[in-house]
Amino acid sequence: MTQLLTVSDAARALGLTPAAVKNHDDELAPERTESGRRIYHRARVEAFAARRDAARDRGVR
């Protein structure tokens, strides 16, 4: 079963604000509920965090 996160949950997992998470929608590729709310797949959020952390470790911003 795929774990889905709200924008607030994704923000908490990434250590970002919800607005900052939304700025990365092109990379996180959220889906939308019928009511239009964003939902993020946990695997995509974790992959994004891994790429971000690897770039940080290399000194890339």
Features of the shown structure:
alpha+beta; Multidrug-efflux Transporter Regulator, Chain: A, Domain 2; 4 helices
What's a concise summary of this model?
This protein is of the alpha+beta class and 61 residues long. Helices cover 56% and strands 13% of the residues.
Please tell me about this protein's structure.
By secondary structure, this protein is an alpha+beta fold. It has a 3-stranded antiparallel sheet. It has helices spanning 7-14, 18-23, 25-28, 42-57, and strands at residues 4-5, 31-32, 38-41. The radius of gyration is 12 Å and the shape is elongated. The protein has 4 helices and 3 strands, in the order E-H-H-H-E-E-H. The protein has one domain (4-57): Multidrug-efflux Transporter Regulator, Chain: A, Domain 2 (Orthogonal Bundle). A hairpin with a 5-residue loop joins strand 2 (31-32) and strand 3 (38-41).
Mass-distribution shape: elongated
Tell how many strands the DSSP assignment holds: 3
What's the total helix number? 4
Strand content: 5-15%
Provide mean pLDDT, rounded.
93
* Order of the strands making up the biggest sheet: 1-3-2
Supply Rg: 12 Å
| Whole-number count of domains | 1
Order of helices and strands: EHHHEEH
CATH fold-level label: Multidrug-efflux Transporter Regulator, Chain: A, Domain 2
